[in-house]
Specification:
The complex is a heterodimer of chains A (248) and B (511). With 248 residues, chain A is mostly beta strands. Chain A has one helix at residues 199-204; strands spanning 2-8, 12-21, 24-34, 49-58, 64-70, 75-82, 85-92, 95-103, 117-119, 128-132, 135-139, 148-151, 159-161, 170-174, 183-187, 206-209, 213-218, 224-230, 237-245. In chain B, strands 1, 11, 14, 15, 16, 17, 18, 19, 20, 21 and 22 form an 11-stranded mixed sheet that branches. A 4-stranded antiparallel sheet of chain B has the order 5-6-8-7, covered by helices on one side. Chain B has a 3-stranded antiparallel sheet with strand order 2-13-12.
């Protein structure tokens, strides 16, 4: 009898075929490859619901990300905080092309992922704002990337977006787990005081994500949220666009 | 929930001693696990293997090899500093790794990088360098070691009071810390390295208590007097029943039997086969060890070799008795019992030894179990020829590398099994590796019994505990969910960013 199997070790995947019987030792053929990465996906629910769209992924850690449409020059940007750098990418020919980056001073990098977290700025937005080491900083998206900072007390992870379903802004919230757990982004209603949600409401009014949400930011037009997720199945850092839509 | 900075992680370990000198670490010994875990706080490797099977840059940012895997070139990360602020240079890496690399592998410095080469191919060099003793350190003029890692040893305290204090050896906190079993536990304090290349760890400090008895560790975890403890296998069920967080690694330690070829009885091939067939590994794992261990039919675990499941060690008492009957009448009877010495420390190996004796008796093989004397300086692995009076030894072998070839080589060399097995192998070919292990098992000079994982008990406030399943703890990524007021105040940030190029290409695609 020929038995074919797939085996994982810490660093390899082994494709194995062994043939043998009780009277003879098995003859084994093994082909070894580096372990590939596997990803999983989850379907979204029906009714008033959220959709998700993967817009960027990379192996290096992403601390925070935000999309930015610059109406002055008709450009679409993706800003990322990654390993101590503020990075600007521009959407060109269906690719997020690296434009430039600036290093965060080491004295302002407080932990291993680096630091930096984008936040909603003024409305209408004139500059891109982010938190860095307890200070609020800003950069001009259309100009070469650099930033200035001032003291602030901003904090918290609940974000709001506008929705085609009604006039009021919708509140979105992440779960309370740490970086070892999967997370979800949930529609938490329209009131700033977070309402109690039943399990069914959470199930139908949320999108599951394949890992912890490291960061979520409202886009400058207020219509969607850009979420950074570390996929626990693959270890890849992923950026999702979360949008509130009506009906199916 | 975002990570918070600050706090002190309180760790309790069973080991009474710890060495901070990778050159002294005994590959395969159970002490190695403790040495490596604490060493990883202070030192860094050139690269690491993540939980998804990908090699990630650490002190080396790039690497390449020739077509035959005989020459590897590593580019070192720029701007890395040791804990005293001095820069890491290629000569440091050369000096650190040279005494650690296996014979046949030569290392040299080349600009801002190093070259490792060998006459034989080294396709598993990355696995080798991402594990085991291959840390980068610098020996200081006073003989102590310094690293570029996320923490540094800020001090050590011997146990206070007690009769055994004078025996404590803590004079060299950066190298070896020891406490006599009779003394109260020694404490080690690690502080966050603000300047480490990988970013400051979340924790301000880690406080390690050495020589903590297993039951005391469990109580301290329950009473929130400790945040992270090593759980003894016999206490795991109790910890789970009390709703404590328990983490389990992959198979970390192999318990097995080794026949001493110098003993006439051990040289009897039929006796070894009968002995092997009498062993009931399933009962050892499920009843004796309360399902906290796995029966082992292979020397290397499945997570390391990928082929361990192909081996099958069946219990066959009928065949064992037949083989025994064909042996000389006096052999392994009360007139001439087979002496089994328990080399591995602790109560668990003694229990295993007694169970082995019970199994063997069912095949009419009389085994006399003798326990090893308590030697204060003894390593958990005794030299193969240290006790010629015992024909069989019960050993514990701790897996210490991510390269199955290197692990098997270390095992074979340590136990002197290479004589009948063609010496050291150079091939990483999994089929050849499988054939080699199969031959070793068929010779029955070593018999695997069970494998044991590592168990860790965690406090409820320990966050982002993301260890490697093969046992690397990665405490620099851990943080404590403590009130903000308990956290350290952040340092003043600089107000102005300076445009520079990114550190390297960021791979990514827009789907």
């Amino acid at each position: 009898m020929l038995t074919v199997s797939l085996q994982w070790t810490a660093s390899k995947v082994l494709f194995m075929a062994d043939s043998g019987n009780s009277s003879a030792p098995p003859r084994v053929e093994i082909v070894e490859l580096p372990r590939p990465a596997f990803s999983v996906s989850n379907a979204s629910s029906a009714g008033p619901h959220l959709t998700r769209e993967l817009i960027w992924q990379q192996e290096r850690p992403i601390n925070s990300a935000v999309e930015w449409d610059d109406w002055s020059n008709q450009q679409q940007y993706l800003f990322l905080f990654s390993e101590g750098f503020l990075i600007r990418r521009r959407f060109e020919n269906h690719i997020w092309t690296l434009v430039d980056s600036t290093e965060i001073p080491s004295s302002a990098r407080r932990h291993r992922l680096g630091d930096g977290e984008f936040i909603r700025g003024d409305h209408p937005p004139t500059s891109l704002a982010f938190l860095l080491d307890g200070k609020i900083c800003s950069t001009q998206p259309g100009e070469r990337v650099s930033f200035t900072c001032r003291d602030t007390s901003i904090g918290g992870k609940v974000v709001t977006i506008t929705s085609a379903c009604g006039e009021k802004s919708q509140i979105l919230s992440t779960g309370g787990g740490d970086y070892t757990q999967q997370d979800r982004i949930t529609l938490a209603g329209t009131e700033l005081i977070r309402p109690w949600l039943s399990e069914a409401e959470i199930r139908t009014g949320s999108v599951e994500l394949p890992g912890p949400v490291l960061d979520d930011q409202t886009t400058e037009d207020g219509k969607s949220v850009t979420a950074v997720v570390r996929n626990l199945s693959t270890g890849i850092y992923e950026v999702y666009r979360i949008t509130a839509v009506c009906g199916n | 929930m975002h990570p918070r900075r600050g706090g002190t992680l309180r760790v309790e370990l069973r080991a009474p001693t710890v060495s901070f000198d990778p050159r002294e670490w005994k590959v395969g010994s159970t002490e190695f696990a403790t040495d490596e875990k604490l060493g990883a706080l202070v030192f860094d490797r050139l690269l690491m293997l993540d939980n998804y099977g990908r090699f990630q840059p650490q002190l080396a940012t790039e690497w390449s090899h020739d077509a035959g895997f005989k020459k590897w070139q590593f580019t070192l990360r720029e701007g890395v500093k040791f804990s005293d602020g001095s820069p890491l240079i290629a000569a440091d890496v050369l000096a650190a790794l040279e005494p650690l690399l296996p014979s046949g592998q030569q290392i040299s410095a080349a600009g801002n990088g190093i070259i490792i080469q060998s006459s034989a191919g080294m396709p598993d060099l990355l696995e080798e360098l991402a594990s085991g003793r291959y840390f980068v350190y610098r020996v200081q003029p006073d003989g102590t070691l310094m690293g570029p890692g996320p923490f540094f040893v800020a001090g050590s305290l011997p146990g206070t009071g007690g009769a055994g204090d004078s025996a404590n050896s803590t004079s060299d906190s950066s190298r070896t810390v020891a406490v006599r079993a009779a003394a109260k536990p020694a404490h080690l304090r690690f502080r966050a390295n603000e300047e480490t290349w990988s970013g400051r760890p979340f924790l301000d400090a880690i406080e390690v208590t050495l020589g903590a008895p297993p039951l005391e560790q469990l109580f301290d975890l329950q009473l929130s007097k400790a945040d992270l403890v090593e759980l003894s296998p016999e206490l795991v069920r109790r910890a789970m029943q009390e709703n404590l967080r328990v983490w389990t690694s992959s198979a970390a330690t192999l318990y097995g039997l080794r026949f001493d070829q110098g003993e006439p009885l051990a040289a009897e091939e039929k006796l070894r086969e009968a002995f092997s067939l009498s062993l009931d590994r399933q009962t050892m794992a499920s009843v004796l060890l309360q399902k906290q261990a796995e029966p082992a039919s292979a020397l290397l675990p499945q997570w390391l070799s990928g082929y361990a499941f192909l081996f099958n060690m069946q219990t066959n008492l009928e065949r064992a008795r037949e083989l025994r009957a064909a042996l000389p009448t006096k052999a392994a009877t009360s007139a001439e019992p087979l002496r089994l010495r328990v080399d591995a420390p602790g109560d668990l190996p003694k229990l295993l030894g007694e169970r082995v004796a019970v199994n063997a008796r069912q095949a009419a093989i009389l085994v006399q179990v003798v326990n090893r004397g308590l030697l204060p300086t003894a390593n958990s692995l005794s030299a193969p020829s240290s006790d010629p009076a015992a024909a069989v030894h019960l050993f514990a072998w701790h897996y210490s590398t991510l390269s199955p070839r290197l692990e098997l080589d270390s095992f074979v060399n340590f136990f002197g099994l290479s004589g009948s097995n063609g010496g050291e192998i150079s091939s990483i070919d999994p089929e050849q590796l499988y054939a080699r292990e199969r031959k070793l098992l068929e010779e029955r000079r070593v018999l695997p019994l069970v494998t044991m994982p590592e168990y860790v008990g965690l406090g409820a406030n320990v966050r982002d505990w993301m260890p490697a399943r093969w046992g690397q703890w990665r405490l620099a990524d851990v943080w404590l969910d403590v009130p903000e007021s308990a956290s350290a105040k952040p340092a003043d940030p600089q107000n102005q960013g300076v445009p520079v190029a990114p550190p390297s290409a960021f791979p990514g695609v827009k789907p």
